[in-house]
Amino acid sequence: MTALLKNVGFREIEVLPYIYDRVVFVCRKERSYADSTSINSLDAPLTLEDDETSCHARDLLRFSFQVKNTGLARWLAGGEAGTGKGAVRLGAHLLRDDEEEAVWDYGRGELVRDVVPGEVVRIETILQATDRPGRYCVEFDMMSEHLSWFEDLGSSSIRHDLHVALLSPAEA
Q1: Does residue 70 sit in helix, strand or coil?
Q2: Nearest Cα to 101, choosing from 152, 138, 64?
């Protein structure tokens, strides 16, 4: 029986002392999950840890997030070989104050490794402020490359207000 259980994928098999005429097997398999190429199981709440609310035009902005994989799929850091399909990243959109799109693909934050369900990771992204002064909103959301934004699957995104000021005379 032990050999049969190993053949079907159990890596650990423990035979407990039998009681009466029964034997108990405790079997363990490596946990396997769907991965982020399957959009049915993707979900992640975002927590913004470090942020900037005002800057000068063309400044570099650093944002840091704590992200928890609350879905049922393992997030692939690199996606499918050759295409990157299914790679999970933090994405950003830049919206004007009236919520019209200024820059749709404003930037990305990368995973450093695959992330299993229940795991929490930190993701940082560096964006460059627009060269046009004004009030903006940066919308952050997780995404599976070439497949979907998590918000489209029912997860929530984060919107962050940003005021971009003119360059100082010394910087112009």
Answers
A1: coil
A2: 138
pTM, two decimal places: 0.77
DSSP letters spanning 24-36: EEEEE-----EET
What is the average per-residue pLDDT within 69-96? 94
Check whether residue 19 and residue 54 sit in a common domain: no
- Pair (154, 136) in one structural domain: yes
Does 152 lie in the same domain as 84?
A: yes
CA 68 – CA 81 distance, rounded (Å): 25
For 97, the token pair is 């104050």
d(CA 47, CA 85): 25
pLDDT of 100 higher than 60: yes
Owning domain of residue 6: 1-30
d(CA 33, CA 70): 13
Rounded Cα–Cα distance for residues 170 and 38 (Å):
51
The number of folded domains in the chain is 2
